[in-house]
Every structure is written in C-alpha cells, then in structure tokens.
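[step 3/7] fold_predict: job queued, chain A
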Amino acid sequence: MQMCANSRAKAGRVLVFSQFTSMLDLIKPELAAADIGYVELTGATRDRADPISRFQSGPSLFPDQLESGGRGLNLTAADTVIHYDPWWKPCGREPSN
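[step 4/7] structure written:
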C-alpha cells in the first residue's frame, strides 16, 4: 500500500499483478480504504479499450491478474510494476526444512 501511495503521490501509474483474482479482491478494498482510485479489467469486462485508455491517459492504479498480460494487454504508461505474489523463489534460495 505504501508503494502504491508513494507512486500515486508522484503522479505515477502503477500496475499491481497477482496470479490470483481472490488476492486482487483482498487488495481492492484496501485501496478504497486508502482513497486510492483504480481502474479494473477482469474477464467480465466487455469493453477492454475503456479501462486501458483511462489507465494510459492519467495517473492511475491498475490491479490485474497475471494471465491477462498474455491476452494482448499493453500498458506502457506504467512507471511502477508490483508483482504481489510471485510464484518463483526469491533470490534463487531453496526453502529451508
């Protein structure tokens, strides 16, 4: 939340990616509570051009599922990208037993 607020304060555009839509459903109320507006695109979105255009044209935050990137999503205006729950092992470390 602090990273989102800091970037937004600088008129930045933030992408928040998660592999789970259920995680995005937990993040969105936190954004609303912090009065951080966002643009959303889901599988139910009929007109993809509208939210993409709104994100590209002004300071905004875009929570999104990782899979949507493979469907022609092009959000070049972002200056901050947050991978909320990456599935890879950070720093290549093996988990300890």
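[step 5/7] annotate
The beta strands are 13-18, 60-65, 80-83.
DSSP finds three helices and three strands in the chain.
exit 0
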